[in-house]
Design a protein that fits this description.
alpha+beta, 7-stranded mixed β-sheet, 22 helices, 5-stranded antiparallel β-sheet, 22 strands
C-alpha cells in the first residue's frame, strides 16, 4: 500500500496549487529573499525561478511541491492586503494587492537618486583629508523610478530571520559613498541600459554616450571601494561593458587585428573625440580593453572611471576562464567577489597583483602639520616610494639582458652565472631507478600558492643597493651575493640543528640552480639561497655583494590579503583549512564543479600572485625598444627584479627543504619537479600512499596535505609504465613528467620552456 500512497502523493504534488506569478514575487520579496537564495534552496538555476515569477514557465515535480510549500508558509507570514474597494479586481486576481508597501522587488532594478562622493584624494599634501564631490543632478534623479534587486531597510521580515547570501556573494558596501559596490556590468535589455552590480543590485542607466556614462558613474552610481591602507586612495569605479552595451555607446564589439596588436582604438575614433569634447582624458594606454577615463585631480577631488571590455579580450581566458561569456549578473558576481577579496581589477591579473602591492604600501603620506598648520606629501616608510630607481644605478648582476646598465657589453656577449643572478623556479627531472620502476604509480603533489608562501615573512630591499667587496654573509640582509657553493655535498646535510643525514645526493636536485645541476664555481645568488647553504651545514664566503640596507617585509600584507582571498573562496567551494588529510582529498575532488563561477575566482587569485611577481621584472613589450635603451617599465618604482628573485629563491628553497626532510625520513626521492609540482614513485595512487603520516600527523618540516599556502594537494597520478613509455616514445631520458602528470597527455618533446 505504501507504494500506492507514494504514487498518489506524487500525483498531488504534480498539481500543487501555486499563487499567481505576481504573488510569488511579492511573497519572496516580503521575506527579504533573493532569487538566488530560492534557487539555491530548491537546487535549480536562478533563471528557472525568475521564469516562474515572470509566468514564462511553471515548476515541475519534485521542485513544484517544495516551491508550493515555501509559498504557503510565506503566505501565512505575509497575508495579501485586501483589494481597494474603489478598484475591484477580478476574482481570479483577488490575491494580488493593488499596492505594496513592503520591500522592493529583488528581481527588478532601481535607479539611485543621490549623487556620488568623489574618489580618493590625489597624492598631494591634502591626501588624508578627502572632500566629497558636489552632488549633481540629485533633484532630477530623485524623480526617476527606482528599481532594485536588493531588499531595503524597510523590508518586512519575520522577527529573528537571517538573510543568507549565496556563497561567495560580496556584501553591499558599508561606505555610503560606495554603497552599490565596486563595479557594475553594463548591459542593454529591451532597449534599456542596466548596470548589474554586486549583491544582485541592478540600476537603470540613463546615459546615452560614453561621456555621459562616465559622468553618471561618478555622480550617481555610488560605485567604488574604500582604500586598502591609511594614506592610500579609494578604488575607482569599474564598468564592464557587454557587447550590447558597446553597440549602444558606439563602440565595436571586437577589435580589428590592427587595433588588437596596438591594444587600443585609433585616436580618431568618434568615441575618443566625444570624450575630448567633454574634457575627459585617457591614460597613455589609450582606449583599449582596460581603458581609464579621467579628469586631472583638483585638490582632493579625483574623477576617474575604468572600463573593462571582455569582448576585446580584457579577461584573459588563461586566468579568468569563461568569465567573459557569463551573463551580466553572474559576471558581476565573479568580478565582485574578486574585488571584495583582492581589489577592484586594474587590468590583467598581473597588473592587479602589482597594483595591490602599491595599494597596501602607498608611496607617500601626509606629513605632520608644519609651522603654518599645513601638511605636505612625504615618503611613506615601508613603501617603494614614488620614484623609480635610477636605471644606471642597478647592480649589473640583477638586471635582464638589454638593460641600459649593460649597454657597454659586446653585442653577442652571453652572461654566465658569475655575471648574472639566475633565480628561477625548478624544471628538473631524472631517470627512474630500478627500484622505482618496480613500483606501480607516479604521484604528483602540488604546493598551494607556492610563490605567495615564499613571499610571506620575506625581508626584501626597499631602496638602492650598495656594492661591497669581500663581505661577511648576513642571512638577514637582502641582496645578491657572488659566492662559490660547489662544495656543498647533498649526500651529507644537516636536517636539524645538530643532526646530519646521509642521503643519495645523485637522486636530489641541487637547490642552487633551476635545472637542479650542481654549481661548478662562483655564481650570483639571492640571500635565501646562500642562507640555505649555511643551513645545510656548509660555510659560505662571498667575494662580492650588492646589499640593500634599507629593507623590510614589504610583501607581508600582499601575501595576507591574497591568502585570505584564496582560503575564503576555497571554503565557499567546500574546502576548509582544517580538514583531515582524507577529508581534504575528498573535498578537493571535483571542487570546481560545485560553483564554476567561484572556481574562476580561485584561478584569478592564483594568477594574481604569479603575475604580480612577474611584473616586478617586466621586459620590453614592443615599444620600438632596442637593447641598451630604457623601456617603459623601468620608470615604475615597482620595477624590482631583486624582489622577484628573492621570492623565487625562497620558494625553491622551501620546496627543497621539504624534499630533503622527506628523503631523510622515508628514503624516497623525487623523480621530477616543475615549479611547485613534485612527482614521486609510489605503490599506491594517492599522496597518502607515500606521505609519512603518523596518527594523522605529518612529518615535521615535510609535506603536509591541506589548502593553506605552502601545504600540498594532489596534482595527478599516472602509471610507472606510462612514464617509461613517454620517455621512450620521445627519446628523452629526462622528460619532465611533472609537466604532464595531471592528465597524462604529452603533446610534444619537453623543451624546458
Amino acid at each position: 500500500m505504501s507504494e500506492l500512497f507514494d504514487a498518489v502523493d506524487a500525483l498531488l504534488a504534480s498539481r500543487a496549487t501555486l499563487p499567481s506569478p505576481t504573488e510569488r514575487k511579492r511573497l519572496r520579496a516580503a521575506h527579504g529573499l533573493t532569487i538566488d537564495e530560492v534557487a539555491t534552496a530548491l537546487k535549480v538555476r536562478r533563471a528557472t525561478v525568475s521564469g516562474w515569477e515572470a509566468g514564462k514557465t511553471e515548476p515541475r515535480p519534485p521542485e513544484r511541491d517544495a516551491y508550493a510549500r515555501l509559498l504557503d508558509k510565506l503566505a501565512e507570514l505575509y497575508p495579501a492586503a485586501p483589494a481597494a474597494p474603489a478598484t475591484p479586481t477580478p476574482a481570479a486576481d483577488a490575491a494580488v494587492p493593488a499596492t505594496f508597501t513592503g520591500a522592493p522587488d529583488p528581481s527588478e532594478a532601481q535607479t539611485m537618486s543621490t549623487g556620488q562622493a568623489s574618489e580618493a584624494a590625489a597624492m598631494t599634501a591634502t591626501e588624508d583629508t578627502q572632500t566629497p564631490a558636489p552632488v549633481a543632478a540629485a533633484s532630477a534623479a530623485a524623480t526617476r523610478p527606482a528599481r532594485t534587486t536588493r531588499p531595503t531597510s524597510s523590508t518586512s521580515r519575520r522577527p529573528g530571520a537571517k538573510k543568507a547570501a549565496p556563497a561567495g556573494t560580496p556584501a553591499p558596501g558599508t561606505d555610503p559613498r560606495f554603497e552599490n559596490g565596486p563595479l557594475a556590468v553594463v548591459d542593454v535589455e529591451d532597449g534599456k541600459a542596466l548596470a548589474y552590480c554586486t549583491g544582485g543590485l541592478v540600476l537603470d542607466v540613463p546615459a546615452k554616450s560614453i561621456p555621459a556614462l562616465v559622468d553618471w558613474t561618478l555622480r550617481e552610481a555610488k560605485l567604488g571601494a574604500p582604500k586598502l591602507a591609511g594614506p592610500g586612495k579609494d578604488a575607482d569605479p569599474l564598468l564592464v561593458l557587454t557587447e550590447a552595451a558597446l553597440e549602444r555607446y558606439g563602440l565595436p564589439a571586437t577589435l580589428t587585428e590592427e587595433e588588437r596588436l596596438a591594444g587600443r582604438l585609433p585616436e580618431g575614433h568618434k568615441v575618443i573625440k566625444q570624450l575630448a569634447r567633454a574634457d575627459w582624458k585617457l591614460t597613455k594606454r589609450g582606449f583599449g580593453p582596460w581603458a581609464r577615463i579621467y579628469r586631472p585631480a583638483t585638490g582632493s577631488e579625483r574623477a576617474c572611471v575604468q572600463l573593462c571590455i571582455p569582448s576585446w579580450n580584457a579577461l584573459d581566458t588563461r586566468h579568468w576562464g569563461e568569465a567573459g561569456q557569463l551573463p551580466p549578473a553572474e559576471l558581476a558576481r565573479v568580478l565582485g567577489v574578486y574585488a571584495s577579496r583582492v581589489m577592484t581589477p586594474r587590468g590583467s591579473t598581473a597588473v592587479t597583483g602589482l597594483e595591490l602591492m602599491t595599494a597596501l604600501h602607498p608611496p607617500t603620506r601626509a606629513s605632520e602639520p608644519d609651522a603654518d598648520g599645513k601638511r605636505h606629501s612625504e615618503h611613506n616608510p615601508g613603501s617603494l616610494g614614488k620614484d623609480a630607481l635610477d636605471p644606471m644605478n642597478w647592480p649589473p648582476c640583477e638586471v635582464p639582458d638589454g638593460h641600459p646598465v649593460l649597454r657597454d657589453l659586446p653585442r653577442f656577449h652571453v652572461r654566465g652565472p658569475g655575471e648574472k643572478l639566475f633565480e628561477e623556479a625548478y624544471d628538473w627531472a631524472r631517470p627512474m631507478t630500478d627500484a622505482e620502476c618496480t613500483l606501480r604509480h607516479l604521484v604528483g603533489i602540488d604546493v598551494n600558492m607556492a610563490f605567495a608562501a615564499g613571499a610571506n615573512g620575506l625581508n626584501v630591499g626597499l631602496g638602492e643597493a650598495t656594492h661591497v667587496k669581500a663581505p661577511a654573509f648576513d642571512p638577514k640582509l637582502p641582496g645578491s651575493w657572488l659566492v662559490d657553493l660547489s662544495h656543498v655535498d647533498l649526500s651529507r646535510v644537516k636536517v636539524a640543528k645538530d643532526k646530519w643525514a646521509e642521503l643519495d645526493g645523485s637522486l636530489l636536485p641541487s637547490p642552487f640552480t633551476p635545472k637542479g645541476e650542481g654549481p661548478t664555481g662562483p655564481a650570483w645568488y639571492s640571500t635565501p639561497t646562500v642562507a640555505y647553504a649555511q643551513e645545510l651545514g656548509y660555510e659560505v664566503r662571498p667575494t662580492e655583494a650588492w646589499v640593500r640596507r634599507e629593507n623590510g617585509r614589504y610583501l607581508d600584507g600582499w601575501y595576507n590579503r591574497l591568502r585570505d582571498a584564496y582560503l575564503a573562496t576555497m571554503a565557499d567551494l567546500g574546502v576548509d583549512a582544517d580538514l583531515a588529510p582524507e577529508d581534504f582529498l575528498t573535498a578537493m575532488d571535483g571542487y570546481k564543479a560545485r560553483d564554476p563561477e567561484l572556481a574562476i575566482v580561485v584561478s584569478a587569485v592564483k594568477a594574481t600572485v604569479k603575475g604580480g611577481l612577474g611584473k616586478l621584472r617586466e621586459r620590453p613589450r614592443g615599444e620600438g625598444w632596442r637593447p641598451g635603451e630604457p623601456w617603459r617599465a623601468l620608470s615604475r618604482p615597482t620595477w624590482r627584479p631583486d624582489i622577484r628573485a628573492a621570492v623565487i629563491s625562497r620558494t625553491r628553497i622551501n620546496l627543497h627543504r621539504k624534499i630533503v626532510k622527506h628523503a631523510a625520513f622515508t628514503g624516497q626521492y623525487p623523480i621530477a619537479i616543475l615549479s611547485d609540482c613534485v612527482v614521486y614513485a609510489s605503490n599506491g595512487p594517492s599522496p597518502l600512499d607515500f606521505l609519512p603520516y603518523r596518527e594523522g600527523k605529518p612529518l615535521p618540516g615535510g609535506f603536509k596535505l591541506g589548502i593553506n599556502p605552502g601545504l600540498v594537494k594532489w596534482e595527478g597520478t599516472q602509471d610507472v609504465l606510462w612514464g617509461e613509455e613517454v620517455r621512450e616514445r620521445f627519446n628523452a631520458g629526462e622528460l619532465n613528467l611533472a609537466r604532464y602528470i595531471k592528465d597524462g597527455t604529452v603533446t610534444d618533446v619537453d623543451s624546458g620552456e
